[in-house]
Amino acid sequence: MDENAGQNVVHEIKKNGGNAIFVKVDVSNPDSVASLIESSVKEFGKVHILINNAGIVADARLVKMDMDQWQKVIDVNLKGVFICAQAVSKVLIDQGLGGAILNTSSVVGLYGNFGQSNYVASKAGVIGMTKTWARELGKHNIRVNAVAPGFMETEIIKSMPEKVINLMKEKTLLGRLGKPDDIANAFLYLASDEGSYVTGTVLSVDGGIII
pLDDT tens digits for 90-118? Predict the structure, then answer.
């Protein structure tokens, strides 16, 4: 959604010899997603990999959460994943070349978290959809996997109190929050030929916080 940040990333990729485009997208809107896919195919010819990584939080305890907080998180984190995967899977099937759909879940989608009924529900739902789509799309050589990050140094934690962040560091066996590259490397493996026999799995990248 951040056009300036997106264009900066495109600039960095092109500066290092790659090619990229930025398209502003509302993942909860099917027409917006269709425009993204159209732009991608026009620029690159084909689609091979989808990474569903859009996510938001709107935290509140069960007794305090209002329906707007519930719905906006579900719309982006769950409905958005469904819309993007449905649209891209149709393209991948038509192309007949296989491919990979990768979904961002969360460690809280596996184990729950205080004050995050909406977020946990969305991320648990992503895990369920991942396993379902792996069953449905395997015959088309389309692999579907999820990554379940722990607590990462990203924009999403800026709304959390500092004492909560410090507590998470203390509970993590590796003694730090994760970095974006930690998640990117997990996605890279699952998208690559090295992960060609992996589907329907959830890869936890959490520094050992659950143990």
Answer: 999 999 999 999 999 999 999 999 999 99
Q: Which domains does the chain have, with CATH numbers?
A: 1-45 (no CATH), 47-205 (3.40.50.720)
In order of 33, 100, 114, the CA distances from 38 in angstroms are: 9, 18, 40
> Is residue 106 within 8 Å of residue 204, measured between CB atoms?
no
What's the angle, vertex CA 117, arms to CA 114 and CA 120, rounded to 5?
90
pTM attached to this predicted model: 0.93
The answer to whether residue 119 is catalytic is yes
Question: Cα angle vertex 10, ends 53, 38, to 5°?
Answer: 65
Q: 74 falls in which pLDDT band (50, 70, 90)? A: very high
Amino acid at site 144: V
Length of the chain: 211
- Which of 111, 119, 189, 197 is the catalytic position? 119
Residue 160, SS3? coil
Q: What is the pLDDT of residues 111-143, one digit of tens each?
A: 999 999 999 999 999 999 999 999 999 999 999
